[in-house]
Amino acid sequence: MAMNDALRSLFAEGGGALNDRWRLLSVCLFAFALALAPNVLPLLLAVMVATYLIDRRPWSHRPLIQLDWRAPSPWLLLYFLLHVAGMCWTTNQDFGWFDLGIKLPLLVLPLLAMMPGLRPSGRDAALLSFCFGNAVAVLLFAILATIRIVAADGAGPEEFLSSRFSPGLHPSYFAWYLATALVVLLIGGTGARLPRRWRLVLLLVLCLGIVLTQSRMGWITLPVVLVWALLHGWNDRWMRRVLLLLLLVSVLGGSLLTLLSPGVRARMVDLVEAVSAPRDDAGQSAAIRTVVWRSAREVAVAHWPWGTGTGDVKDELVKRYAADGALKASEQRLNAHSQFLQSLVALGLPGLLGLALALVLPFVSPGIGMPDRAVRRAALLIMAMNLAVESMLEVQAGVLFAAFLAWVLWWPTASVPSSRS
Asked: Where are the beta strands (DSSP E) in 275-378?
């Protein structure tokens, strides 16, 4: 009953007038579906935009466009516009337009961020919807993995690990979602809206999900989030005990998986070999990254300072892979596997600066209060760590989440005046 009361109160505070409630519902559905139903996100995004456009009431009380240069959204919009400009010096127009289509949420959601928003507590409702959606995804994927193990053609316990565990969503992206959900629950005041037992269940499920994704960056960010939260909430005795328990369980779980699972051991060995002696014919994910990064740097230098252009980036990378003898990377037509390098190759110095501004400026800018500043900085740090080792903004799962997070975490704090009948 306490849980129902908490959620009912939260949505009542965040909704306000009827039109506000419809908008809040559309945002919460989008947040809930991020990990669970990636295929329906474009439709939910369209519904969310529609709920904003059809309601003219709030616009009469404030300016149509509000810019907050301390937030990531304006800089992500600039990053998108740089890709539009990059079409001017590209030859592969087809791939360029395809890339702009993938990055379109970097235009749509930042524009929503500049429009009149919902009540401040609507942010907590949206963020908790995201957390619950991720927890439900972990449980659903675990049930599906169990069913596949029972099936005759199942892969045994390996069904619980890596890409087999999260069908339809790459494990690296899922681990990023889960780590960010932990940030939301542990840092700031959002998680405090839930009863303690529900908060503990959510935290355990999210940590379990990160371990099961078998994402190396997920395994790195998990202790980073837990230690940050531990230092941030050290004075809270209950939270301190929970975080120490989560750290212990996560370390033990990861260690047992490494000892007992051949697949996990192979990934750890791959990581060590990639750092010590990368090979041009590497086939494992960590080893091939080091080869791809070297080739991407060479392409960036060759096309300095403006880059290859939006549409030619993949073609130029593939040519360099072949010239460097990285045959597997060439055959698979891999991107740079680092968003920073990808931006540098495609758009040169302007692209790298545009992406850096979206991360660094909000990180160093003061927030409205300590809880807001802490949760925003932690989320940006986790985002930057993932962008460093994966071209997250080259696929829908990364673009939608980055743009959504940059919007909701920097939700306007002034509430929309409610209408009177």
From this structure: none
